[in-house]
Amino acid sequence: MAGHEVRNVQETWHPAPRADGAGHAGPATAAGRWRDMSDSELIGIRVEQSMLDRLHELHDHFIRGVRHGRKIIMRRCDLSGLDLDGMTLAHAEMLGCNFTGASLRRTNLSCAQLLAATFTHADLTGANLERAGLRAASFDDADLTGARLTGADLRDCAIYDEEKNEIGSTIPSSFRGALLRDTVLAHSKVKRAIFDGASLIGADLRNADLRATSFTGAELVGVDLSGTRMADADLRGAMVTGTVVAGADLVNAQISDPVPVSDVWLRARLHEHRLWIMSGGHKGARADLSGLDLTRHDLSGAILAAAVLDEAMLVEADLSGAILAAASLRRANLLRANLRGADLRGVDLMSANMRAVDMTGAKTGQLPGTALNTLLRKAV
Length: 380
Prior knowledge:
The protein has 380 residues and is mainly beta. It has two helices and 15 strands.
């Protein structure tokens, strides 16, 4: 691959220079840059649907060995929002390309080179990405239901910074908030990838390399992790149900073990916390519900201001109308929780799983009389 080198056993991508000498500026228009498909490489342009359709036709000819076929080779091109459904793009080179919001249902991208590509909010239902090069790729909030990524390379990658003329920071592949229902990642290289807040339901990750991978606040239901390498993986706040871990290497993995609580115990803690709030800290005790399993608990209208619920499991919990001002819910799992009308001013939700949360009518922002603001950094 042109412009590709390996440094410190880590792949480094050097984006090809723009033909107009503009460096790494945004995508140019196609006019004057794309001449009757004679260019061997497309760099930094906005690809329109008609152009894509023609490129696909030529690439399909290339794959099938038909005369005058041409392999797709793109760098930093914008394909956002386009329709790639059912296209055969196997072995294509589309480095650093933007597929945000695109439809790639049943698209064949097997063995394609998609280094640092962006698939945010894309629909990849049933797509074939087997053995694809996907280092530093982003699938945040994408739908990968039934997609096949067997043997794909999803490791992190350092990107060359043209402006500074130096290797930039290492970028991991990311699946934040993505839907991976019945997705196949068996035998894939996913070291240091991020699955925070993702839903992995019935996914197949057998024998995958998941070392140092983050699953913070993720939903792992019926996932097959047998034979995986998960040393140093982070599963804090993850909801793990019916998952197969036979033969998995979990050395130094951080795994939450949420503590179940009874309704009687919880009511007593809430009563003590209410006294603590009403007395200005002179009576009762501050509620510390960190790491507890509060799945589907009814906490509607509860006074939880300044309470600590870090890494708590609040999946499908009812917190409607609850007062959570200045509370700490770092890395809490709020998957499908009901927060309608809740007071979230000054709440710390850093790295919390907010997927499918109902916040209709909730109060957010700065808590009056304090410098505290609702903190959603890294929340998914």
